Amino acid sequence: MALAYTSALLKLSGEALAGDRGVGLDPQVLDSLADELKQVHALGVRLSLVVGGGNIIRGATASREGLDRVSADYMGMLATVINSLALQGVLEQRGVETRVMTAIRMESIAEPYIRRRAMRHLEKGRLVIFAAGTSNPFFSTDTAGVLRALEVEAQVVYMEIGRASCRERV
Ligand code: UDP
Question: How far is the CA of 78 from the centre of ligand 1 (A)?
Answer without folding.
Answer: 9
